[in-house]
Q: What sequence folds into this?
């Protein structure tokens, strides 16, 4: 997206949301090409989920991000997560939480 169009779209957002989007864009721009590709693949996989499943995954990611690393890892490997999320969703959770899934 050209900078002018990006700015126009950002101007439409409320200040708090705009700050969040700008922060994410800055992080994305600082990524290596390989990291960007991985992030885009993860976003595409997330977008392929039904709206209901996207909400469930989003809520779980927020929960995971609020946990200390050792609790996050335990939660990701818990029976509850394995029962409530498909293998594809579990992969998204592991990647979003920064805990690569060991197969």
A:
């Amino acid at each position: 997206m050209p900078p002018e169009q990006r700015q126009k779209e950002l101007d439409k957002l409320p200040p708090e949301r705009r700050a969040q989007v700008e922060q994410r864009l800055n992080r994305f721009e600082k990524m290596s090409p390989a990291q960007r590709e991985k992030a885009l693949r993860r976003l595409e996989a997330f977008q392929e989920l039904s709206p209901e499943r996207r909400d469930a995954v989003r809520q779980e990611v927020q929960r995971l991000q609020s946990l200390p690393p050792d609790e996050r890892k335990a939660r990701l490997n818990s029976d509850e997560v394995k029962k409530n999320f498909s293998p594809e969703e579990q992969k998204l959770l592991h990647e979003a939480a920064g805990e690569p899934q060991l197969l």
